[in-house]
């Protein structure tokens, strides 16, 4: 139905271009700031087109990479483990709830659903995990509280299993004497790659981006994920200085380093984005329109 | 009545025996929700106690509504409620208006590749964490090095502004940042529903001589109205909850900005972590959870009235 008038098309494209520019401009400023010479930043501030380009920030980060690499490692570990376990638990719970034979199906579905409507809040959750489970300053604190499973994704996956897996396939496998476990692993899961990819992607992004668990449960900087480290550096300018091992901190390009660390945190996501965009968009639209 | 209930229970138990593998599969997930979601719900009693760690939470003294009395006696209770509500209201109105306009424009674009590129790029802000957003905003607003103070304001001959200590700018800054991060996602959702509209409506309208603007007004908007209603009502259901990251990271947790950046979520966090005031913090948390719950139920009831299929429950 798009109209073909040339002026019309141009006008629309200009508006869209302006908004798109508004969206990506801050990323550009961040990257160019990380590549600007520190003296230049102090004189002229962060600029979109730096007059003096310098890789000093990245060089310093590269030679002093121990802290950053550890934080990176923790983020990757937490993301991989959290996504794998979370996705497994979600599928294991969603599948039986999609089967009409499942006993107490409605009650259990409501049990999952209610977690989306009401919660005990920060204080009880915090006290539970710190006082009863002793999660403070452990890796588990970055994986388990609030993030591991999400009722919304259980419902989403249950709906997919119930509507997209043909019932006769399951029934005939059942008659052939296949065990429930086998039906799930050999028939249902291979037919469900789209929903597994979408939900897995959202768990991955959630873990990669999470800083909240670290903010409340981690005080020991050795357990900081990349986001927690970024968080500390953002809110406390001294932290970057104190966490680098260089003796002569006076000639550190601290200003551009700060931006370079943030760039290192966001670039992997931006690079991977085109490859997972399809599932990302699917998750956003399915989630919103269908619930 | 009782007998039939008993037999239903017996039937379910028999099914549980027959399908024990299915039951087994659900256990880890059910256990997680029990620990992570249901156990803390019992913790709401903390709001009615004077927590003393020496005697434990359960052994602490009951104080009735004292914590709530203290909370609502402070000015904070009013400020955080006002901030949470007003920010969310303006976010809902502004983001919805921009997202729908952009979705309509995107749908008008003839070159597929251009439209795809725009969609990809406007979703980028949705992908990143609020910590990164904090850095991006700092790039513009840093008092000594920011783009605003060093380049843009001098260009117009204006004096530098100390952004992170003046409250009057923050309602605007936070609204812009929120739109920057959220409009893309909302726009994609509306675009999906616009694409779903049957082309025959437009063909018929063209034959009747309707121009583009009339088609948008008479066909597109009315046909996506249900989606707009639902998205808006869902957002209203969440109006008592704020985006903690937006109000905490973007203003860099700055004390002087708190009159305009403190929301219920940041208040709960600060009362717990900075002041160690468990009573106040849990009272504010329960206040939020209860009002939030009522609002979700209410907005769902309204959605149900419009369209049963679109209701959450």
UniProtKB/TrEMBL annotation, chain A:
Keyword Cell membrane: yes
GO cellular component, one term: plasma membrane
Annotated localization: Cell membrane
Parts of the chain that traverse the membrane: 12-31, 71-95, 107-127, 139-162, 183-205, 259-276
Keywords, sorted A to Z: Cell membrane, Membrane, Transmembrane, Transmembrane helix, Transport
Topology in the lipid bilayer: Multi-pass membrane protein
Domain ABC transmembrane type-1: 72-276
Biological process terms in GO annotation: transmembrane transport
Homology family: Belongs to the binding-protein-dependent transport system permease family.
PANTHER family linked: ABC TRANSPORTER PERMEASE PROTEIN MG189-RELATED-RELATED, POLYGALACTURONAN_RHAMNOGALACTURONAN TRANSPORT SYSTEM PERMEASE PROTEIN YTCP
Name of the protein described by the UniProt record: Sugar ABC transporter permease
Origin species: Paenibacillus selenitireducens
UniProtKB/TrEMBL annotation, chain B:
Keyword Amino-acid biosynthesis: no
Subcellular location: Cell membrane
Main location per the UniProt record: membrane
Domain ABC transmembrane type-1: 81-299
Biological process per Gene Ontology, one example term: transmembrane transport
Topology of this chain in the membrane: Multi-pass membrane protein
A single Gene Ontology CC term: plasma membrane
Top-level taxon of the source organism: Bacteria
A Pfam family it matches: BPD_transp_1
Family under the similarity heading: Belongs to the binding-protein-dependent transport system permease family.
Record-given protein name: Sugar ABC transporter permease
Source species: Paenibacillus selenitireducens
Lineage, top ranks: Bacteria, Bacillati, Bacillota, Bacilli, Bacillales
């Amino acid at each position: 139905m798009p109209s073909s008038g040339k002026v019309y098309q141009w006008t629309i494209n200009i508006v869209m271009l302006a908004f798109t520019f508004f969206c990506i401009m801050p990323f550009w400023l961040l990257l160019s700031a990380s590549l600007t010479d520190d003296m230049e930043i102090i004189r002229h501030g962060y600029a979109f087109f730096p007059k003096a380009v310098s890789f000093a920030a990245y060089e310093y980060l590269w030679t002093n990479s121990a802290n950053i690499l550890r934080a990176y490692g923790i983020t990757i570990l937490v993301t991989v483990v959290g996504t794998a376990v979370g996705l497994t638990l979600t599928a294991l719970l969603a599948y039986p709830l999609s089967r009409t034979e499942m006993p107490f199906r409605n009650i259990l579905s409501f049990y999952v659903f209610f977690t989306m409507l009401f919660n005990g809040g920060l204080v009880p959750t915090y006290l539970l995990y710190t006082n009863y489970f002793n999660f403070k300053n452990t890796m588990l604190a970055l994986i388990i509280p609030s993030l591991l499973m999400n009722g919304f994704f259980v419902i989403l996956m249950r709906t997919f299993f119930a509507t997209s897996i043909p019932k006769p396939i399951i029934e005939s496998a059942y008659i052939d004497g296949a065990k429930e476990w086998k039906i799930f692993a050999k028939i249902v899961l291979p037919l469900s790659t789209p929903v597994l990819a979408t939900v897995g992607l959202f768990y991955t992004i959630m873990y990669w981006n999470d800083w909240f668990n670290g903010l409340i449960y981690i005080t020991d900087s050795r357990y900081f994920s990349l986001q927690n480290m970024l968080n500390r550096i953002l809110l406390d300018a001294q932290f970057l200085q104190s966490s680098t091992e260089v003796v002569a901190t006076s000639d550190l390009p601290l200003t551009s380093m700060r931006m370079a660390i943030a760039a290192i945190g966001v670039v992997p996501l931006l690079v991977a984005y085109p490859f997972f965009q399809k599932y990302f968009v699917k998750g956003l639209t399915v989630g919103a329109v269908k619930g | 009545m009782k007998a039939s209930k008993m037999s239903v229970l017996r039937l379910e138990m028999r099914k549980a025996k027959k399908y024990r593998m299915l039951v087994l599969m659900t256990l880890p997930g059910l256990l997680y929700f029990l620990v992570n979601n249901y156990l803390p719900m019992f913790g709401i009693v903390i709001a009615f106690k004077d927590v003393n760690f020496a005697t434990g939470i359960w052994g602490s003294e009951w104080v009735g509504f004292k914590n709530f009395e203290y909370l609502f006696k402070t000015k904070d209770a009013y400020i955080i409620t006002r901030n949470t509500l007003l920010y969310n209201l303006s976010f809902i109105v502004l983001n919805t208006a921009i997202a729908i306009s952009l979705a309509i424009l995107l749908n008008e674009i003839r070159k597929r590749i251009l439209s795809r590129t725009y969609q990809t790029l406007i979703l980028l802000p949705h992908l990143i964490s609020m910590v990164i957003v904090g850095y991006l905003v700092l790039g513009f607003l840093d008092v000594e090095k920011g783009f605003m103070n060093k380049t843009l304001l001098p260009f117009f001959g204006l004096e530098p502004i100390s952004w992170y200590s003046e409250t009057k700018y923050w309602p605007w800054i936070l609204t812009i940042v929120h739109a920057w991060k959220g409009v893309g996602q909302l726009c994609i959702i509306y675009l999906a529903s616009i694409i779903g509209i049957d082309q025959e409506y437009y063909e018929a309208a063209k034959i009747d001589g309707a121009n583009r603007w009339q088609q948008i007004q008479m066909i597109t908007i009315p046909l996506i109205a249900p989606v707009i209603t639902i998205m808006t009502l869902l957002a209203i259901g969440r109006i008592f909850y704020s985006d903690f990251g937006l109000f905490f990271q973007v203003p860099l947790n700055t004390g002087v900005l708190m009159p305009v950046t403190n929301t219920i979520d940041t208040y709960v966090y600060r009362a717990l972590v900075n002041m160690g005031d468990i009573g106040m913090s849990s009272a504010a948390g329960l206040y939020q959870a209860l009002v939030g719950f009522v609002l979700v139920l209410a907005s769902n009831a309204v959605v149900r009235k419009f369209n049963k299929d679109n209701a959450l429950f």
